[in-house]
Amino acid sequence: MLDLSAAFDTINHKTLLARLEPHFGITEKPLAWMEAYLSDCFQTVCIDVELSKPVHMTYS
Fold first, then answer.
1. Which of 5, 16, 37, 38 has the fewest C-beta atoms lying within 10 Å of its C-beta?
2. Is residue 1 part of a domain?
3. 3-state secondary structure of 50
């Protein structure tokens, strides 16, 4: 089995969105949904009961 989960760990959100339409034909509502999904993303880490400060994500 091929695990591709780490293959997309470092894709810049702006680059991804810019390539979805010309390379994959994703337009209008699906493109707007992807943009909304990737906009203002923050990540936190919880270890036991300690929660880290949110970090703005521009790559994922």
1. 5
2. no
3. strand
Return the amino acid letter for 43: Q
* Domain-located, residue 37: yes
Q: Are strands 46-47 and 41-43 parallel, antiparallel or unpaired?
A: unpaired
CA torsion sign, 15 to 36 to 53 to 9? negative
Q: Is residue 7 part of a domain?
A: no
Counting the structural domains of the chain, the total is 1
Q: Which residues contact 29 (CB under 8 A, 6 or more apart)?
A: none
Its domain, for residue 32, covers: 13-57
How many CA atoms are closer than 13 Å to the CA of 14, on its beta-carbon side?
1
Euclidean distance between the first and the last CA atom of the chain, given in angstroms as a whole number:
23
